[in-house]
Every structure is written in structure tokens, then in C-alpha cells.
Design a protein that fits this description.
Elements: E1 10-20, E2 25-37, H1 44-50, E3 58-63, E4 77-81, E5 93-96, E6 112-118, E7 122-126, E8 136-147, H2 150-155, E9 173-175
Parallel strand pairs: 5-9
Antiparallel strand pairs: 1-2, 1-8, 3-8, 4-7, 5-6, 6-7
Amino acid sequence: MHIMLIQAPCVVSLTWTMTDAQNRPLDTLDEPTEFFVGGHDLLASVEEAIAGRAAGFETRIQIEPEQAFGEYQPERVCFEPRALFPAQLEPGMVFEGLPTGATTPGMPADALYVVTEVYPEHVVLDANHPLAGVAIRLAIKVEAVREATEDEIEAGSVGRAALSVLATAAPPKRLQ
């Protein structure tokens, strides 16, 4: 029987436990989940840690913020008038881009903005990734390795929304 080793392009099924540097839980992938190796599905440091290995391999790695989701950037936080938002608004909600009529110049148009605080007159929005500035520890297990399909190779992905914070991390509440 041929044992397939992890090398791009291929698809791996992983399980993991993710914590911050203080070992506070951030994310757990209990069910084996497929990721494309050599594309957009995994951070480079995760791919490097499992490269050349086979199903059954387990490892622990720490990823510094600059290799994960970047340093926290205070300039990516802004205040916008409360009147620009829907009546139902609470911290944790996410908007793609700023609302029409936004008053803060120079903010990225395509960013995801997380509502961090709601006041009577204004709303605080944060365009930083929820894990910006956080060092991540991962305990990873490779459950399976398979060849990638032509479609997966072309897309550079297994072609579904990331199930975890390790890819693009869409926060749970998303509004247009």
C-alpha cells in the first residue's frame, strides 16, 4: 500500500486544538476537516509543520502574530454615528465594509468590521482580525491525506467556507 506524504498540491484532513499563548482555548476542530495544501486554506506555518508527513502525524506549533493574523492595528478602529446602523445592534455583529454615510476617512472598504461597543450617539467598529496580535498554539493531527482534484487545484482551496479561525475567520454574526 502506498502511503501518501503531504506535499502541495494535496488535501489533508486535520483535527486540532487551538489556544492562545496562555493556553486559553480559541478553537477546536473535533471532526476531521479537509484543507487544500499549497493554496489559501492554511497558514504557511501550518503547511510547513506538516509537509512531508503522512496520516497519523501529530505535532504542536506556536505561530507568532506576524505569521498568523498580523499585529493589532489601532488605526483599524473607528467610531461611526449610531444612526447609520440598524435598530438591532449589539457587540459582536459584523458588517462587510462601513455603512453608507460613514464619516471616517481612509478605512478599508472591503474589510469586515466587528461592532465592539454601542453607545447612544456612536458605534465602535474594529477591522482587525479577531486574532490580530495573538500568538497561537496548535496541537494538530493529520487524519488523512489524499490527492487534490483538478477543481481544488484550480481554486487553491477545497472550495467551501473555512470552518475555523485558521483560514479567513468569518465571525459568527455577519450582516450586509
